[in-house]
Prior knowledge:
Order of helices and strands: EEHEEEHEEHH
Largest sheet: 5 strands, antiparallel
Number of helices: 4
Amino acid sequence: xxxxxxxxxMQPEQIRGAAAQPVASAPRLTRKTGKRSIAGRSGEKPYxxxxxKLLEFSPFERHPRGGWRFGAxxxxxAVADRLIASGRAEIVDGLLRSKLPRGSWPKLLRHGPELxxxxxxxxxxxxxxxxxxxxxxxxxALINSLDRRKIRKWFEDSEQTSARLRDxxxxxxxxxxxxxxxxxxx
Length: 186
């Protein structure tokens, strides 16, 4: 690489007698979520993501001044119309509801520390398969893996964290009531 800086391209008005030509712009980059581009989905606008996410939790109500409301978040009638036209929402009993299929949470097996480690791992693997098959996403508090070694490590790490917290709670419980505990900020 050379440490010389290239001169900026000359604008058409800087060149005498040159006709004005359009300046090429940089290609538009799209944000990715998962494996598909937001702008690449048929009929979906990038700014429809927030209303769709909110519709997963609860329906929108009609806002008295027009549009639709989810708590303090409002969307315009045009956004609601676009979601309805694309088949992702519908109006039922005056509420804007999602039409996207949602999985129901499956019945899970207990995998607590009272069981042998091999049984805990097999029950945990069953639970992950059941969650995935129901169409729900695996909660972030759980390890999303079927690998027995990763699950064993996750159980062991969780047990160590629990033991450290139990020890800390016991130590704090033994302190006199008027003890001031210093707070250390990172």
